[in-house]
Fold this protein.
Amino acid sequence: MCGITGWIDWNEDLTKQADTIEKMTETLELRGPDASGTWLSRHCAFGHRRLSVIDPANGAQPMVRPVKSAEEQDCVVVYNGELYNAGELRDELVRLGYRFRTTCDTEVLLLSYVEWGPACVDKFNGIFAFAIWRTDEETLFMARDRLGVKPLFYRHSEGRLLFGSEPKAILAHPEVPAEVDAEGLAELFVIGPARTPGHGVWRGMLELKPGHCLTYDRNGLRTTAYWKLESHPHEDDADATAKRVGELLSDTLERQLVSDVPLCTLLSGGLDSSALTALAVRYYERTGQGRVHTFSVDYVDNDKHFTAHDFQPNPDAPWIERMSRHLATEHHGVQFDTPELADSLEAAVRAKDLPGMADIDASLYLFCREIKKHSTVAISGEAADEIFGGYPWFHRQDALAAETFPWSLAASLRTGLLSPEMRQLLRPEEYLGDRYAQAVAEVPHLAGEDEQKRRMRRMSYLNITRFMPTLLDRKDRMSMAVGLEVRVPYCDHRLVEYVWNIPWEIKMAGDREKGILRRSLEGVLPHDVLYRKKSPYPKTHNPNYLSTVRSRLLERLDDPSSPLLPLIDADKIREIAATTDASSHLPWFGQLMSGPQLFAYLLQMEYWLRQYKVKIVG
C-alpha cells in the first residue's frame, strides 16, 4: 500500500515545480514510510510514497514503461493497492509477449494498461487507486476499485488537475485554499461522519467514486462508471448458495494471504473475523507457514462497565480467547485507557483530514499502531454486515420503514445542535432528504419484486453504497496513518455481486441474520461461535471517557475565540452535556455513536477548524 499524488497542468512547465510536488508527496509519508519517488515532465508531475509489501527490493514508483504502439514514448504510473489476481494477469501478459523486470503487481497493473487501455480495470481483482500518464497522447487515466477500499481525491480547475490519496496532498499545493462552503458544512453536520459518494467536503475537492475511472486531457475531464451493482434473478437453492459463498470466501481469502512481509488477522471472536482467521489457519497449515498471528482490541476496565443491549449483546473477550485457543493462534491482546483514547482524537483528525467517528476512529488508530509493531499486513472482517445484512436495522421495522438512512434516525437532534444561522444556511432536513432520495433513486430493483423484497434490496443498497464506504474510509485512513495495510476479503467484488442477488429469505437461512454465511461456514467454526449474536467493533464503556470528552468540549465552548461557536447552538450542547450520564442513550449516529461520541465529534470539529485554519465561504 502506498500514497499517491499528482499534478497535471496545461499552462505551467512542471519541470520547474519539483519543490511543490515533493511537498505534496511528503504529506503522505505515513502511508508509505519505506520509500519516496517523484517524476516530472512539462505537463505532468507524479509523487509516490511506498509501503513495501510485494517484492520490497524492486517495484519503485513512479514506474515507467514504454507505450505498446509508440515504444519511444512512455506510460508512467503511481499506484496504491493490491491486485489479488496479479499472477493470472502476469501469465496472460507473458503469453502476449511482455517481459517483466519485477515480481510486483505495480508492473502487472501498468502493463495491463499498456495492453488493454482503460478496459484493464475490468480484469482487475483487488483494491486500488492509480493514475497513469501517457506521454505520447498527454492523457491522464485514473481509476478506483469497485467498492472504494482505496481512496482517491481530486481538484479540477481551469487547465489544472490535482489528485491525491488524501486531501492533505492536494491542500499542500500553494494555490489550494483550505476552504469549506455550505455544502461541505452540511456533509459534516448533517451526513457526517458518513459522506455522500464523490463528495470531498473541502471546497472544490471531489472524490473519485468507487467503480469509476477518470480521463483528463486537453479536451477536458470525463468520469465514467466501469462497475455497479446489477440485479439478476438468483437461480441457486439455499444449499448451492451456501456452497458457492464458501467457495468464494475461501478463494478470496487465500488470494489475500499472499505477502512478502509479516501478516496477521484481526480477531474479535465474532462470526466474520473468526471465519477469516479459521480459513487462514487452514491455509497456513496446508502451506507450512506456521502459526497465524491474531490481534484484538479492548479497553481498560471495560468488563466492569459493560452493559448488554441490542447492538452489543455481550463482550468480546471470552470469545476471542475461545477462538484463539481453538485455532492455536499466536494471539496479541491490545488495551487502551481513557486518557490515551481521548488524546488520540486529534491524531485521527490528522489522519482523515476531517472529523470522523470520534473514539471509534481513535481506538482503531491506536490499535493499528500496535499491530504495526509486529505486522505490515492485516486481514479484517470489515463489510460482512453490509453485504450479508447483519446490522440490527436490517431487522427492525422502524428502520425499514423510515424514509431516511437507518443510521440517521436522530435527524431532529442533530438539527438542534446547529446555530440558527447555520440551520438557515444548511437547511439540514432538506439536505438529508435530497441525499437520501438520490441514493434510493440509484437502487437497481428487479422486475416483479414485491414491496418487502424491494425494501430489503433498498436497505442493502444503502448499506453497501453509503454506510460501508464510511467504515472502509475509516479503516484505510487509520491504518495507513501508521503504515499498516488492511485487507478486507468480504469486499471482493465477485462475492459482493453474488450475495447482492441472493433473496432475503435465503440470506436469512435458519431465520438468523447472515444465515447463509453461517451455513457456508458449517464445519469451519465451532457451533457456539458460528451462531453467536452479532457484536460490533468494541468501544469504551468507561464513564471516565464521557467525563473527559464532555469537560474538554465545555472548555472549548467557554473560549470566545473558538471557531466552532458560530456554527453551533452552544447553549443546547451545554444542556445536553448537563443531562447526559453513563446510562443515557443518545442515538446520534449509527449503532455505536451516542453521547460520548457526540461530544468527541464536536471536539474533533473544533480541532479541525483550528488546525487546518479552515475558512468558511459562502
Summary: Residues 451-480 form the longest helix (30 residues).
